[in-house]
Design goal:
The chain is about 0% helix and about 40% strand.
């Protein structure tokens, strides 16, 4: 360019402004399917992206997390062979089921102080199969169940900065169905 800066075809300038006043982050967009189809026998992944704007910069974002509210159908077969077909009890409120690791992780930069976060949620197959490691061992907490649940799930996303300012969106609906 005219100033003698050299850029190749793979680079581009990013203008990342950092504001020193505490300003809350803002969730401006999300990407998630309206419907997710469970695989009959294999575990799959539900990908979700969240676009967070923060005038204070990426370093100011402390945590980006999600919770769910599930209204699932009951299973119709005893696929795990325990002699019981477990009924599903719907959630009363948004919950992370006691897990502190329901987080979205920073994935990439967007334009103008937009930071893109992503999560890939493991989804149990229709037959309720256990999740196994590469050696075929069942991963603790992912044992076989009667089925992969179908029905409605609503998501709540929350971004919190280092000043404890937050923004959240909720009632993001995904219908989980069988093939």
């Amino acid at each position: 360019d005219q100033l003698g800066n050299h850029f190749d075809s793979k680079s581009g300038m990013k203008y990342l402004t950092t504001n020193t006043d505490s300003i809350k982050p803002e969730i401006i967009e999300y990407s998630a399917p309206d419907t997710f189809v469970l695989h009959p026998t294999e575990w799959t992944v539900l990908p979700i992206e969240l676009h967070v704007f923060d005038e204070n910069g990426l370093e100011d974002i402390n945590i980006v997390e999600y919770k769910t509210l599930r209204i699932f159908n009951d299973c119709s077969e005893d696929n795990n062979g325990d002699g019981v077909i477990d009924a599903f009890i719907p959630d009363d409120n948004y919950t992370n089921l006691g897990f502190e690791d329901w987080l979205l992780t920073f994935n990439r930069f967007g334009p103008n102080n937009i930071f893109i976060y992503r999560v890939e949620i493991p989804m149990r197959p229709v037959d309720g199969s256990a999740f196994t490691d590469l050696d075929g061992n069942v991963v603790s907490g992912f044992e076989a169940t009667d089925c992969g649940r179908t029905g409605d799930v609503f998501f709540q996303f929350q971004a919190t900065d280092k000043s404890s300012l937050t923004d959240s969106i909720e009632d993001i609906h995904i219908e989980i169905i069988e093939p």
